[in-house]
Amino acid sequence: MSDGRIGLQLRSLIKKGGELEISLVDVPTPEPAADEVVVRVEAAPINPSDLGLLVGAADISTVKASGTKESPIVTAKVPEAAMRAMAGRLDQPLPVGNEGAGVVIKTGSSDAAKALMGKTVAMIGGAMYAQYRTLKVRECLPLPAGATPADGASVFVNPLTALGMTETMRREGHKALVHTAAASNLGQMLNKICLKDGIGLVNIVRSDEQADILRKLGAKHVVDSSKPSFMEDLTQALVETGATIAFDAIGGGKLAGQILTAMEAAIGKTAKAYSRYGSSVHKQVYIYGSLDTRPVEINRAFGMAWGVGGWLLFPFLMKIGPVEGQKLRERVVSELKTTFASHYTKVVSLQEALDLSNLAVYAKRATGEKFLINPNKG
Amino acid sequence: MSDGRIGLQLRSLIKKGGELEISLVDVPTPEPAADEVVVRVEAAPINPSDLGLLVGAADISTVKASGTKESPIVTAKVPEAAMRAMAGRLDQPLPVGNEGAGVVIKTGSSDAAKALMGKTVAMIGGAMYAQYRTLKVRECLPLPAGATPADGASVFVNPLTALGMTETMRREGHKALVHTAAASNLGQMLNKICLKDGIGLVNIVRSDEQADILRKLGAKHVVDSSKPSFMEDLTQALVETGATIAFDAIGGGKLAGQILTAMEAAIGKTAKAYSRYGSSVHKQVYIYGSLDTRPVEINRAFGMAWGVGGWLLFPFLMKIGPVEGQKLRERVVSELKTTFASHYTKVVSLQEALDLSNLAVYAKRATGEKFLINPNKG
Question: DSSP 3-state assignment of A193?
Fold first, then answer.
């Protein structure tokens, strides 16, 4: 299929009966409109944000393989309690893959489209776990000379999310920030940004190994939530940085409330008079991930000036608008091999992505494990 | 003490040892500065927001009386676990009473102050559980002719809080709202405002009696969280009103999360395509009270466009500024005996407020029970 007219595409389907089915299907590549191009996808990361769509609420321990080597099928059970949240996607085979990179092999008739012919471009817009992808010129970002598709595969989601955090911090009037699950690929980028931009960052990790990863990057404030001294360590780091906003990838459990409590305690160390409603300094936790799917449990021991809410990259980009968004993209491209370099554990084909031994690894969302799909891997 | 030079003032003290002590002390009335007046306080409500300061985190079941009839003392134990939250106020006898009303008996030298001589005024600024209160002209609101101190005692907190809710709804782009503990004095006012202004309001109550109170006021949407059909009833009311913001006086437990879940379900009934992150409509719950002091438990079954946070009247008024705040005050005065009329169960003296049988009633914060203190009751 090297002419790109037909290519394999990964599909994730959750059936009404409560079964997840992941498969590969042949799909014709849409002809490009005037302002569109066809890209041969050569690199697409498996981000935590992709896993939500790829495996949904399925119980990974029930996973089974069928089909053939060329056309594998993965199935798994979705627990009944989780089916309510899946209601909107039942019986629709959905393409997956938020971002990727590849080479433009065909273009529409516009000058902007023609200018991309043969170029290596990064892409955003979904359905990237596919051999070919037709998309608009504005969904492509040409990579600098010498950059491979693998270099540019993760240009959008993690780098823009990390920059979105420091931008949100500034726009909402905070001077430093807290990040949880801080040793992640995203967390490492955020550390590089904060070190470069002189922003105070409190990294919350869950093990000595994760703390080491960050300290090696030069992180100044690393606190371990598995230690008995966690609340004291966190409060001290908050006093030192003045952080009053946090981005939390964990979600469930007590962590968001603990962060707010420690922020209030840190503020209280410099407060002058008793206020029955607590400090008037607004303390914010944005939850952007769900590594822990239990309910968020917020023990309100931090006055009334607080907020907890969801945060996502795309609504943030909508809010700041295309001009500001473009500035962030340009920064990512200019620091592609430094601040925003991604590291992958393994590069797999579409078929290999459906191999149960690989799925067992990337579905764990473990720190330091990151897979890259090359849909045209030979 | 009818010359007003010295008067009784109620004080609430939490001692380091873990004991609450409420007492009455004689305090000299400060001489008014040029822009100040002295008011003989004749009516001050016991609002839920006053109880937080009055009894703090004390365990009301341990309450004891001592002292004399003229100078009673109330003591109670503060559970050790709750002492951390009291740290900021230890060993400081604090005056209590957010708002009140009375008659101006002495003024400073400014024209604005002199103009208030003999007038009945409503007051805001704390320390209202006292016989005399010296305060600034701008903390006073002259009441219309014929209005008694009792009519004007609750002009600020409940009416401005209720108006603050509909104002916040508008300013944050929502078209209807949800209110919990909706049969409260405040909730009844909010119903009158919403009926008058044509705003959709979903009232959440916890009993048939509370539902009846609101239906008699003409409330259109009343749902009972104690009923098995609560989630369906709530979702239906949200579909009918389009409410995407809630003000919650309960705080602890699952209610805030249930409201967000029902909002998302209501939005989903009109959604056209599956979005893996849930709807993009922002859903907000503001917690402004703490009738349930347990942790807030948020089961995130409503996508990523959500927020939960604290809401308080005074920061809201600071945010909208004095001009907009004055408009709200003027509306309250002009509808003092209709929309914003308060009803009291009992009028007590300062000594009677410390009577254990009265304290047992008002400290319960029960719907429909509201006490008024008249510090100059004969």
Answer: helix
Select the residue from B294, B298, B317 to test the A interface by mutation, using most A Cβ atoms within 10 A.
B298
Sign of the four-CA dihedral B212, B216, B217, B219? positive
Average pLDDT over residues B88-109: 94
What is chain B's alpha carbon radius of gyration, rounded to the nearest angstrom? 22
Report the alpha-carbon distance of residue B125 to residue B96 in Å, rounded.
Answer: 10
State yes or no: pLDDT of B1 exceeds 70. no
The model's pTM: 0.84
| B99-107/B120-124 β-pairing | antiparallel
- Helix, strand or coil, per DSSP, at residue A130: strand
pLDDT score of B48: 83
Of B315, B259, B307, which is closest to residue A284 (Cα–Cα)? B307
Residues of B in contact with A307 (CB under 8 A): 307-310
Q: Please tell me the distance in Å from A24's CA to the nearest CA on chain B.
A: 20
- A24 contacts A71 by C-beta, under 8 angstroms: yes
**Average pLDDT for residues B44-60, to the nearest whole number?**
90
> Distance between CA atoms of B110 and B36, rounded to whole angstroms?
8
What is the least distance, in Å, from the CA of B123 to any CA of chain A? 19
Q: Which amino acid is at B332?
A: V
Q: Which residues, other chains included, contact B289 with Cβ-Cβ below 8 Å and sequence gap of 6+?
A: B48, B49, B181, B248, B249, B250, B251
Cα–Cα distance, B175 to B250 (Å, whole number): 23
Q: Which residue has the tokens 């003229």?
A: B70
Q: What is the DSSP string of A221-285?
A: EEEETTSTTHHHHHHHHHHHH---EEEES-EEESHHHHHHHHHHHHHHTT--S--TT--SS-EEE
Cα separation of A146 and A192, whole Å?
Answer: 23
* pLDDT reported for residue A1: 44
The interface predicted TM-score of the complex, written ipTM, equals 0.81
Confidence of residue B25 (pLDDT cuts 50, 70, 90): very high
**A355/A153 Cα distance (integer angstroms):** 21
CA distance B175 to B171: 10
A89 vs B85, B274, B280: nearest CB: B274
Q: Is the dihedral of CA A49, A55, A56, A61 positive or negative?
A: negative
pLDDT digits (tens, 9 = 90+) for A192-228: 999 999 999 999 999 999 999 999 999 999 999 999 9
CB contact at 8 A, A22 and A84 = no
pLDDT (tens digit, 9 = 90+) per residue, A79-122?
Answer: 988 887 788 789 999 999 999 999 999 999 999 999 999 999 99
pLDDT at B368 exceeding the cut of 80: no
For β-strands B120-124 and B72-77, DSSP reports them as unpaired
CB contact under 8 A, B52 and A276: yes
- Residue B306 to residue B262: CA distance in whole angstroms: 12
d(CA B249, CA B311): 10
pLDDT digits (tens, 9 = 90+) for A130-148: 999 999 998 999 999 999 9
CA atoms within 13 A on the CB side of A359: 24
Instruction: Decide: B308 and A307 in contact? Cβ < 8 Å.
Output: yes
